[in-house]
TrEMBL record:
Species assigned in the record: Leptospira meyeri
Protein name stated in the entry: Selenocysteine lyase/cysteine desulfurase
Keywords: Lyase, Pyridoxal phosphate
Aminotransferase class V domain boundaries: 32-372
Domain of life, source organism: Bacteria
Database matches in PANTHER family: BLR3095 PROTEIN (PTHR43586:SF15), CYSTEINE DESULFURASE (PTHR43586)
Length: 400
C-alpha cells in the first residue's frame, strides 16, 4: 500500500484585504506593529505544520507530502522569485549573523583595504566583520545623513578613496525606515571595484530587490520579518560569479555531494549556496517558512509590498493629524513600511518610552529605536487597527 498524500491547504487570494487579519490571531484583541522586528504565526502556517506533524507521526521522515527536496525546492523557488535570481544561488541558514559570519570568514580581503557598513547598523552586519581589523583591514561606518540622497553622497565620497573592498549595506535602515537607492549603490560599487554585500532582513519582502540587475555578491536575511517566517531561520544568496572557487570555512556532514551516503568520506563539495547548510536542519521551520511564502505568493509578492505601503500611509496620515513628525517627512516620495516617529508639535508630549508603555497597556506593540517610536505594519493590519491606534494616541496626548 502506497503512502497517502495529504491535501495541502490553499490560501484565499483576497481580492480586497478585508478580513485577512482573521488569519493572524495576534490581531484578535491586540495590534501588532513590530513586523520588522518579529512576526507572529498565521493560522495558515499552523495548519500546514499540523498536517506535517500528522504525516510525520505516521511516516517519520518519509512523510509523503513534505519530502525535504520538494520543500527546499519550493522555498528556493519563492525566494528566487522575490529576488529575481536563480534558485541555485539560494541557501538556508539559521539567521543573518550566521550567514554573514560564514561568508566573512570564507573570503579573502587584502591587507590595507576597508570594509564599509552603515552608521548605527544592526549588530548582525557589524560583528561578523570585526575579525578583519586584526588582519589589517579597516572597518568603518558611513554616515546615514538626513535623506537617502545625502547618504549616497557620503558613500560616493568614501568609495572615491579607492580602498574599499566591501560595502555591506542594509537597503532599509532598521531604526529609521529610510530606503536607499540600490540601483545607484550597485553602480557606485561596480565603478569603484567594490563588492556589494547586503543585509536583507529589513528589505526582502518589503522593498523591490532585483538581483538580476543589481550586482550583489552576497546577501543574508532573517525569515521572521517581512516574509512572516519562523524565528531561527534565515536565507543566504551567493551570486554565481561569487560562487566560482568559493569554499566555506567549515566542512560539515552535509557539505559534500551525496551526503546521505556516509562512506567513503568525500572531498567533493556541494555547489556554493548548498555549502551553507552544514548538517541536519530544523525541518519544522522549513515547513513554517514554506507555508508563509506560499501564502505571500498566493497574494502576490509585489501586491503585498504595496499593501504594506498603503497601511503605512494610513498610519502616517493619522500621526500627522495628531501632530507627530516622522523620519519619512524628509523623504516623502520614498516608499517604506517602517514608520519612525521623531517628535510632536508639543515637544513635551514626545516621550517615546512613555508612549510605548501606554500603547502596550492597551495591547498595541511598537518599538523604540534610536530615540524614535517605531511602527511597522503588515498585511494583518486593517483599517480598524489604524483607527484603534489613532484613538489610543489621542488619549495619550489628552493627558495633562
Amino acid at each position: 500500500m502506497s503512502p497517502n498524500h495529504t491535501e495541502l491547504p490553499s490560501f484565499p487570494p483576497f481580492h480586497s484585504w478585508k478580513g485577512i487579519s482573521l488569519y493572524f490571531p495576534v490581531q484578535n484583541d491586540s495590534v501588532w506593529l513590530n513586523y520588522c522586528g518579529t512576526t507572529p504565526v498565521s493560522t495558515y502556517a499552523t495548519q500546514m505544520m499540523n498536517l506535517y506533524f500528522q504525516e510525520y507521526a505516521r511516516f517519520g521522515i518519509f512523510a509523503p507530502s513534505f519530502a525535504e527536496p520538494t520543500i527546499k525546492a519550493a522555498i528556493r523557488g519563492y525566494i528566487a522569485e522575490i529576488l529575481h535570481c536563480d534558485p541555485s544561488e539560494i541557501g538556508i541558514v539559521h539567521n543573518t549573523s550566521e550567514g554573514m559570519n560564514l561568508y566573512s570568514h570564507s573570503i579573502q580581503i587584502p591587507k590595507g583595504k576597508r570594509i564599509l557598513v552603515l552608521e548605527n547598523e544592526y549588530p548582525s552586519n557589524v560583528y561578523p566583520w570585526e575579525h578583519w581589523k586584526e588582519k589589517g583591514v579597516g572597518l568603518e561606518f558611513i554616515p546615514v545623513g538626513k535623506t537617502p540622497d545625502e547618504f549616497l553622497l557620503n558613500l560616493k565620497n568614501e568609495l572615491e578613496k579607492g580602498d574599499v573592498s566591501i560595502l555591506s549595506l542594509s537597503p532599509v535602515h532598521w531604526c529609521t525606515g529610510v530606503v536607499f537607492d540600490m540601483d545607484v549603490v550597485s553602480k557606485l560599487c561596480e565603478t569603484h571595484h567594490t563588492k556589494l554585500v547586503i543585509d536583507g532582513s529589513q528589505a526582502v519582502g518589503h522593498i523591490p530587490l532585483d538581483f538580476g540587475k543589481l550586482k550583489v555578491a552576497f546577501c543574508a536575511f532573517a525569515a521572521w520579518k517581512w516574509l512572516l517566517g519562523p524565528l531561527g531561520l534565515g536565507v543566504v544568496y551567493l551570486s554565481k560569479e561569487e560562487s566560482k572557487g568559493f569554499q566555506l570555512i567549515f566542512k560539515g556532514q552535509a557539505s559534500v555531494v551525496n551526503d546521505s551516503s556516509y562512506f567513503p568520506y568525500r572531498d567533493e563539495w556541494k555547489p556554493a549556496a548548498d555549502q551553507f547548510e552544514q548538517s541536519t536542519i530544523n525541518f519544522n521551520d522549513w515547513i513554517y517558512f514554506y507555508a508563509s511564502l506560499k501564502m505571500l505568493s498566493t497574494l502576490g509578492f509585489s501586491r503585498v509590498r504595496e499593501r504594506i505601503y498603503e497601511v503605512a500611509g494610513m498610519f502616517k496620515d493619522a500621526l500627522h493629524e495628531l501632530g507627530f513628525t516622522l523620519e519619512s517627512d524628509a523623504f516623502p516620495n520614498v516608499k517604506t513600511g517602517i514608520i519612525a516617529i521623531t517628535g510632536h508639535k508639543n515637544p513635551s508630549k514626545f516621550q517615546p518610552e512613555a508612549i510605548q508603555a501606554f500603547l502596550k497597556q492597551r495591547k498595541i506593540t511598537a518599538a523604540v529605536r534610536l530615540g524614535r517610536l517605531r511602527m511597522a505594519p503588515h498585511i494583518a493590519i486593517e483599517e480598524e487597527h489604524v483607527a484603534r491606534v489613532k484613538e489610543t494616541l489621542k488619549e495619550y496626548l489628552s493627558q495633562s
